[in-house]
Specification:
By secondary structure, the protein is α/β, with parallel strands linked by helices. It has 6 helices and 33 strands. A 7-stranded mixed β-sheet has the order 5-4-1-6-11-8-12, with helices on both faces. A 7-stranded parallel β-sheet has the order 14-17-20-23-26-29-32. The relative contact order is 0.11. The structure holds guanosine-5'-diphosphate-alpha-D-mannose (GDD) and magnesium ion.
Length: 365
């Protein structure tokens, strides 16, 4: 079978992951202390896909600085850059000169174990123009709902329907195999979306659009709760319930307690009586002072957690400083370089924008 090229859509604004994504593109957000895109590349390689086109927005510099042409990771990465957001379909049209044969499109925020080889086989068997991976979810209203007939042929595609329009729990997983002829349905340099424009049009014209239902792991990590869930799931999967992975040398005081699954980045410092309860992750060079508690939390690099502070089920971006005895609790998100001074309590999903300081004793909830 010919190797497929993969187009990864990474040009969205990632508003739902703010403030984490104020300075970091979604595809560079760390998952188990590695950029999401690095996991993507590993996954594609296991399916013998080494030609990758990144359809990016105007500022791909952070991605380019880290990944370059992909050769260090054993793949070839080409960049297709949009001056203005062109939408999911417009972005692929923009990359037309890089595509020839059948190709795969991925929404850049999905993390999955889908069996691409099986999906490709079915695409060929069906002689499909487009094949859409379909996964079951509890709340289809926040996705594209895809109705198929008994042969697996797609009958309807409705993007983000209200509950009264929901006819199935099978949704668009954001993974498509497409024939190059599809590109003729997309107007160049014009905003257009597969979900609202192209798929409905293909169906109207009676094109062979098929679904590929699958049960393997799948998550769209584009919201804070799903980003946290993804990492908790992967920690359980790769580190195991009680394990701790040290990514390099770190100092852990003999009276500190670490209960896995946990990952501790290089050069961390965990002081006396500090407690880390998995699933939890420390990025490189994090400092956890005496008696501080980290539970279910994900910290990016260079964070400092003061004496007796408590972090539970929260997301903390790079270089944050949490003052003594402060509490950052369920669903809270701190952007880069946030300072929470002594004796604060943040809970109920509060989001603090990069660079802000929460003055001492401003108790919030
Ligand atoms: N290059 C480029 N240009 N990429 C874009 C653009 C654009 O203008 N707009 C969005 N993207 C990228 C985003 O970066 C993301 O990786 C992907 O396209 C999907 O955009 P989201 O904003 O994450 O969409 P969604 O999650 O609300 O819905 C989509 O994904 C669901 C599955 O997770 C739709 O495809 C739904 O139908 C689907 O069910
Ligand atoms: Mg998404």
């Amino acid at each position: 079978m010919t190797p497929f090229k993969a187009v990864i859509l990474v040009g969205g604004e990632a508003t739902r992951l703010r403030p984490l994504t104020c300075n970091t593109p979604k595809i560079m957000v760390p998952v188990l202390n590695r950029p999401l895109l690095e996991h993507f590349v590993d996954y594609l390689k296991t399916h013998n896909i080494i030609d990758i086109v990144l359809a990016t927005g105007t500022s791909p510099e952070q991605v380019q600085d880290y990944f370059g042409d992909g050769s260090k990771l054993g793949v070839r990465i080409a960049y297709s850059i949009e001056n203005l957001p062109l939408g999911t379909a417009g972005a692929v049209k923009n990359a037309e000169s890089l595509l020839d044969d059948s190709f795969i499109v991925f929404n850049g925020d999905v993390f999955t174990d889908i069996d691409l080889s099986a999906m490709m086989r079915l695409h060929r068997e069906n002689k499909a123009t487009a094949s859409l991976a379909l996964t079951p979810v509890d709340d289809p209203t926040i996705y594209g709902v895809v109705e198929t007939d008994s042969q697996g042929r797609v009958r309807h595609f409705i993007e983000k329907p209200s509950w009264d329009k929901v006819t199935t729990n099978m949704i668009n997983a954001g993974i498509y195999i497409l024939e190059p002829g599809i590109l003729s349905y997309i107007t160049p340099n014009t905003f257009s979306m597969f979900e609202r424009d192209v798929f409905p049009l293909l169906l109207e014209e009676g094109q062979a659009v098929y679904g590929y239902p699958f049960q393997d792991y799948w998550i769209d990590m584009g919201t804070p709760d799903k980003y946290l869930k993804l990492q908790h799931d992967l920690l359980h999967r790769y580190i195991g319930n009680k394990g701790t992975k040290f990514e390099g040398e770190s100092f852990v005081h003999s009276l500190a307690q670490i209960e896995g699954p946990a990952i501790i980045g290089e050069a961390c410092f965990i002081d006396r009586n500090a407690i880390m309860k998995g699933p939890a992750i420390l990025g490189t060079r994090c400092r956890v002072e005496e008696g501080a508690v980290i539970q279910g939390a994900i910290l990016w690099q260079d964070c400092k957690i003061g004496r007796g502070a408590k972090l539970r089920n929260c997301l903390v971006a790079s270089r944050c400083c949490i003052g003594e005895e402060s509490e950052i609790l369920d669903g809270c998100i701190l952007g880069d370089d946030v300072r929470v001074e002594k004796g604060n309590k943040l809970s109920n999903g509060i989001k603090i924008w990069p660079g802000q300081t929460i003055e001492p004793g401003t108790i919030s909830s």
